[in-house]
Amino acid sequence: MSSLQNRVAIVTGGALGIGGATSRRLAAEGAKVLIADYVMEAAKENAARIVGSGGEARAMHVDVSKAEDLEVMVKEAVDVFGGLHILVNNAWGAKESDGTAETITESAWEYGMNAMVRAHFRAMKHAVPHMRKAGGGAVVNIASVHGQLMAERRLVYETAKSAVIGMTRQMACDFGKDGIRVNVICPGHIVTERGEANWAQRPDLHKLFVEQYPVRRTGIPDDIANTIRFLVSDEATFITGQAIAVDGGLTIQLQENMGIAQAIYGRDHPEIDYGHWE
Ligand SMILES: NC(=O)c1ccc[n+]([C@@H]2O[C@H](COP(=O)([O-])OP(=O)(O)OC[C@H]3O[C@@H](n4cnc5c(N)ncnc54)[C@H](O)[C@@H]3O)[C@@H](O)[C@H]2O)c1
Q1: How close is the Cα of 17 to the center of ligand 1, in Å?
Q2: What domains appear along the chain, each with residue ranges and CATH number?
Q3: Using CA atoms, how far apart are residues 149 and 36, in angstroms rounded to an integer?
Q4: pLDDT of residue 1
Q5: Which of 18, 145, 192 best tests ligand 1's pocket when mutated (most atoms within 8 Å of CB)?
Q6: What whole-number percentage of the chain has pLDDT above 90?
């Protein structure tokens, strides 16, 4: 029997990128997957791809920045599939969010916090009673290496991702006794469909990214989907509240040394166009 047979999963942002791969991976293990995304065409395509390979999935329009959408999302999973066991809070949203405390607008802050922080708490609020009823559940939140280490001019994203790590630990404490485990993944750079198109224009800059990873590659969505598959399975029932970096070793390095290695690489590759990093 597949490891997630008879489990019901919601994947927010499940149409594309990490969420897209996760929906397919969980469905391949037998889970019934609700793909909750605000890009319906891609969500339907992913659901059709899953159904086409013998899995069960349904696409639903959900904007995670809206409280009411998250309530309806959980209800839909329970009504259609008969319960809820797995929740992957993956969707992200940031509108004009680059900037500092001095430059960020109130609306960019508000949207970012709604889509990346409140969404997780709201989805959880509605999911917990159903998971408890099912005898337990597994939640995976997606933060980032940007929740562990800060980059300049990224106030909204870095704050949101840091909050997701704290919220995960808190929720793991609160709901462990109900059999509900909550973990968070901090991905390094993952080349999604969107990323592929960008890097195709900038292979020199992508190589510079690759150089920063001990494993000498950036990630792919399946790197994260595989980790999620493990975390929500019965193989991981003693793991909760953990922030797991899936980052090819990016964050284990001493930054001074890495900075120097990068400076040398840059000196030897004067053709690199640093674009908006400058
Ligand atoms: N790709 C990376 O390098 C990387 C690195 C670290 C963390 N992450 C995190 O991984 C998660 C997924 O990122 P990704 O790179 O796969 O993104 P992506 O842009 O490739 O895909 C995001 C998906 O979420 C959906 N989405 C966006 N906003 C939404 C909203 N408000 N409501 C519903 N759906 C929405 C999109 O339609 C899309 O299907 C995010 O939480 C992101 O912060 C990504």
Answers
A1: 7
A2: 8-194+218-250 (3.40.50.720)
A3: 29
A4: 53
A5: 18
A6: 91
Q: What's the 20 CA to ligand 1 centre distance in angstroms?
A: 9
CA distance 43 to 272: 36
Which of the residues 38, 111, 157, 265 is marked catalytic? 157
187 lines ligand 1 (CB under 6 A): yes
Q: Tell me the pTM.
A: 0.97
What does the pLDDT average to over 141-167? 97
Please tell me what DSSP assigns to residue 220.
-
Residue 188: how many CA atoms within 13 Å on its side-chain side? 20
Residue 160 and residue 38: Cα distance in Å, rounded? 20
Contacts of 141 (CB under 8 A, 6+ apart): 89, 120, 164, 167, 168, 182, 183, 184, 185
- CA 268 to chain centroid, in Å, comes to 35
